[in-house]
Amino acid sequence: MKAKKEVNLINGGYPLHTFDDIKDIYSLYITDKKDRELIESAYQYARKKHEGVYRNTGEAYIHHPLEVAYILARLHVGPKTIASGFIHDVVEDTDTTIEEIGKQFGKEVQNIVDSLTKISRLKLSRRGKTVNFTAEDHKKILLGMAKDIRVIIIKLADRLHNMRTLDGLPQDRIERLSKETLEVFVPIAHRLGLYAMQSEMEDLALKHLKPEVYEQIQKLLDSKMRYRRKSLDALMKRIADMLFEKKIKFEITSRVKSVYSIYKKIYLKGHTFNEIYDIMAIRIITDTVLRCYEIIGLIHNVYKPIPGRFKDYIAVPKANMYQSLHSSIVTGDGNFFEVQVRTKDMDEVAETGVAAHWKYKEGSSKTTKQEMREIENKLHWFRDFVAMSANTNTDSAKDYMDKLRHDIFDSSVYVLTPLGKVIDLPAGSTPLDFAYKIHSKVGDQAVGAIVNNTMVSLNTILKSGDVVEIKTSPNSGGPNEGWLKIAKSTNALAHIRKALAKKNSGLLKDKRINKGRSSLKETFAQNGFSEEEMLERIDNKKLFEYFNVKSLNDLFVKIANHNPSPNAIFEFLHLKDKRSATIKLDKAKKINESPVIVGGEARIAVSLGNCCSPIPGDEIVGYVTKGKGITIHRINCPNVQKEKERLMHAEWRDEDYLSTYPVSIEIEANDRNNLLTDIMGAISQHKIPVTSITAHLHKESTTTSIFATIHVSDIKQLRDIFNVIVNINGVFAVDRVIH
Ligand code: MN
Question: Model-level pTM?
Answer without folding.
Answer: 0.60
